[in-house]
Amino acid sequence: MNASVETTFTPSVERGIAALHEFIGEEAVASLLQSLPPGKFESARFGLPLPPDYTGIERRLIIAFPRHFPRFPLTLQVEPSPWLMWPHATKSGFCLHGFRERPITGTPETVVKDSLSRLRSILRLVADGSDPDVRNAEFKDEFSTYWALQLNSSPQDLLLLERPQSGSELFAISDPRPGKRTRTAWLAPKLESLKVHLRRVIGYSGKIRSPAVPGFYVKLQTHPDIQIPPPERLLDWLTPHLTEDDCKKFLTWFSGKGSLADRWLVLELPGPVGAPLFCLDVRSYSKQPDHGRWYGFRSARRWSGKHQPSHTPTLIRDAVINILDRTDILSRDLSKTAEHLEKARVVMVGTGSLGSAVALQLARSGIGEIILIDPELLESANLGRHALGADDLGRSKSVALAEKLTLDLPIVKVTPYLDYAEMLLLRKPELFDRADLVIVTTADWASEVALWQRKSEGAPWALLQAWSEPHSFVGHALLAPSGAFDGQPLFDAAGNFQHKFTEWPAGGGVVPLPACGQTFIPGGASGMSNVAGMVAQVALRTLTGQLEQQAWTTSIYQPQDIVNHGGTYLGPTVENGIQHIVLERAWPAGEDQPR
Fold first, then answer.
1. How much is the pTM?
2. Whole-angstrom distance, CA of residue 533 vs CA of residue 130
3. Whose CA is closest to 93, among 72, 110, 108?
4. Which domains, ranges and CATH numbers included, belong to the chain?
């Protein structure tokens, strides 16, 4: 029966149907397209016969327009279902997002044409006589998705602390913190990795006695079948795709740990270093649901399986797995910057609103080691623009920030010091001597003078002094590279920068507090984030060798609003429409004096 456009359709659906007719051609509309009864929540449904695919099966394409089309996308299904036979086919339809890597949105015409164009790409892959290698390559790109769709989820997730270089047994302990004990298990190929992570997370330095070994890491050399096998056929499905040595180690472990109720198989898919992982939770004894296992520091004595028979798997599930490996954590940064930062050592003098934000950005960029120096405690007034939160009130800023960075990014070594920089320069000069870069963000002239004095004497480390002017519309960073330089002449005797970009009445915009010598420089989180980003970029360029000369960098944010806060803008003219700009040039003329 030929398709016809009914007047009861909404204008959007009418336009979509017209686009469908145009896409497949009027001849096909007249001879092939069938109008079908719409399903629930559908305005219109059509059927279109398809030619036999590479399996020899003739199928039919179902095209449905939802009632709220195009806000809800076109529905495309094929009968009988090509699930696990066609790339990008799911149990209920198709994953069209993989083509062009963006969702399908726009006008009714755009949605119809884009949806059918992507489907046509799939049909070319599965047409009779199509290249099986090309088709298999499409399957391999989404292997983990197909596996996950066939399996139920495990109640327990895993954290792999490092990637083994070859097939390896994995020791396990549970995350000991309340609420995580039966939800998250930590896995590692070495006991030392578990011990280090325990110290980082909860400060535990005791022994881990006879930990459980419920996991095994395997590096697949080729792809197993895309269809997950029955549990009793798991070994036949997996072992042909391992190296001979890994296969022997794996089978020895599997038979030796056969009495464990749950075992974890961490599969590294074929590919280059850092290939994706997929984890199977293999259960023995029962198919009944459970709520996760507790792997204590002595759990292997309970679950060792000694004098117990090996049990055949009865259930396979998909387990969420994450990995605390430097390569994985920094894999989204394709600039290769992180490769140059693993051995970099930065000393942060000041962990306030600016210093804490800079430290976070540097840690997430891949800095290998950060020293945090700050004697102050976190107060409630800090929370509006500090990297720390309410749980850290009353604690040392440097200690609390070190704990946060360590928990968030265990690949970074972070050490806090509750002292002033000028004291540590005398007591522990080695902290600075081993540094590649020292960043001071304290706005404390005593600390800054001490660092500039050491720098003028030829300290090998680069020095970056950074600060925000009142209300954070303007921020500056002065970089002195390796060698003897002195930035003190750029400031007056009280430490005020002599080339400021803003002027403020009543004490220069600095707000005094009812305590001896205490003040603060006002500013909001948004302006401070711009300054922090500028400082972090200067630091990273310095550490990667992109910036090797003196530099004065300035962040200027919405200078037109300065007058609304009672100030005067003295900096360079900023063109209308520019909200934020960063300037970089040499130190102010006549005062960039090497010593």
1. 0.80
2. 51
3. 72
4. 11-141 (3.10.110.10), 149-329 (no CATH), 341-549 (3.40.50.720)
